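HOLO CASE FILE
Compound: fe (iii) ion
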Amino acid sequence: MSLKRATGALVALSLLPMSVSADEAVNIYSYRQAFLLDPLLNAFTEETGIETNVVFAKKGLSERLEREGRNSPADLVMTVDISRLNELVEKDLTAAVDNETLDSNIPENLRHPEGKWFGLTTRGRMIFTSKERVEEGEITTYEELADDKWNDRICTRSGKHPYNIALFSSMIAHHGEEEAQEWLEGVKDNLARKPQGGDRDQIKAISEGVCDVAIGNSYYYGNMLEDDNQREAAEDVRMVFPNANGRGTHINISGVALTKNAPNRENAVKLMEFLSQPKAQQIYAEANKEYPANPDVEVKGMVAEWGELNPDSLSLQTIAENRDAAVKMVDRVDYDN
Ligand code: FE
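Model generated. Tokens follow.
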């Protein structure tokens, strides 16, 4: 039987018959929006003849997989952020994939040691500064965010947000817990206001004069520049690639994992391979102004114009392992209050 691609609504899940395995369609549970996945999946179907179905949700997919257990129709999970990928592993919901194509296309630090998840795109956690009130080159590292000179001048979203937790985890990995905590206390002391909003809101706050320095993911800046309502705010800030001349800029990933009970393992792995190859890498990265995980793929367009990203080579798995320590550190520092 043929299935229409089910996007957009969780309700669609109940419409997926169990017989999807019979026609060998690949079923994807996705935290990523349809507009990002559709071009990729269409290209995959065109090339292989294998159909795909997507169930999109904002949250709760791992709980859903747990609940469905062996009866789950899901073959793959596609999501952003290392913490969400790691959550799947910790709940034992993903299967190890030992695959030469994936291992050669995706750098070792961007995949799980046993292939339980693979990074597909990366994004830098950048520093944004006011073009008006901060000189070019005045701040070049995350470490400097704790410097007294930025007192009452920094804006960030909640310290508990996974993007910040991953950054703080990387600080723990590079400096040890004690030094990382001292640093975070310094950053907190420099906040212009209580942590709030999302990454875009921090860029807007610089534009409004609330603060001079902010932290945010690279693609938000890119997407704001393409949004008529947000371009002006984005144009008021400069994007700094932190630690570019040292260990590199902290990156996070979007990624894919094979589910433990995947009914169509074979085709699902074919799709994973496809996603790691240049054609798909290009489409996927460009759709959200991200960087391809595959280092052989050229960065194009606006993202290339920003200059070269020197990514921190720290393993995302190490970042995942430091997550709990980072959450506790944020609590001890009482960062959000
Ligand atoms: Fe985001």
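CASE NOTES: Residues 123-249+317-332 form a domain with the D-Maltodextrin-Binding Protein; domain 2 fold (CATH 3.40.190.10). Confidence is low (pLDDT under 50) at residues 1-22.
CLOSED: yes
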